[in-house]
Amino acid sequence: MTTAVLEPRAGRRCHNVLNSLHATSYFAPELGKECAAIGITHPRAVNFAVRAAAMGAVGAGAVTATFYNYKYELVARHVPAVWAVASPGEVLAARARAVDGALRRLLGEDAVASAEMGEAARLALRAAEACSRSARPLYSAHADLTVPEEPHLAYFHAATLLREHRGDGHLAVLMAAGLDGLEAVVTHTATGKGMAPKWVFTTRGWAQEDWDAACGRLRERGLLDGAGDLTPAGVALREEIEAETDRLDRGPYAHLGVEGVARLTELGAGFARAVVGAGAFPVDLLGRG
Fold first, then answer.
1. What pTM was estimated for this model as a whole?
2. CA-CA distances (angstroms) from residue 203 to 72, 181, 282?
3. Which of 10, 60, 174, 280 could pair with 76 as two cysteines, CB 3.0-4.6 Å apart?
4. Is residue 229 within 8 Å of residue 187, measured between CB atoms?
């Protein structure tokens, strides 16, 4: 009997749909409302707090290192000061309330309570059983958190585990490729799939001159041309980065198996389409403009 082999990009496709649901939390008005209720009002402080809270009351250095593509000076304006406003535990509780409200609004009560949601949560949690803690600080911190009982929150939790697991590995690959945080963003944006520059400036703390300097360094390496497009060498490097990230992230999806990955991708894609259709993301978030 022949055992089915997981296709090399199957894990990436599954991750992408799970990450789409996780990422809704950063744009949900519920998050700002719940964080404001505990005293955190600045959008950047909210972002740093909710993603870093699982690591405890860490400083700006730890956040910059684990987030990778944010300017240190921006992080330092809000961290560690934010922990004097609200504790990591209070922030995590606020995020849970915000995610609950946002998913109910974006997906609807029927989807939140559906058998499909419960199935997706079980499959995603099963995949996460095979995540590795080694050199993965954001994943490992979130893995210490208790799994929520409600299926839609358990699904969000599992999607977060799988997102941070892949993300931590991705950063190691970017470092090995010699790309600093902003250079990584510039090359990703140049693929047409990354964040638009104006959102990079707004949320990551970089300015146009930082962007231009990063483009200059990439041109010197032969990765970017004068028009800001990836050269053949740049395209090849981005492909190598994604392939190596796939390799480092293979464990959870191999553990889940071919049929499980296919089913989780199917379920996750349905939820992702629903949240996108409900306007979960800014229309100008992605692209090169």
1. 0.95
2. 12, 13, 13
3. 60
4. no
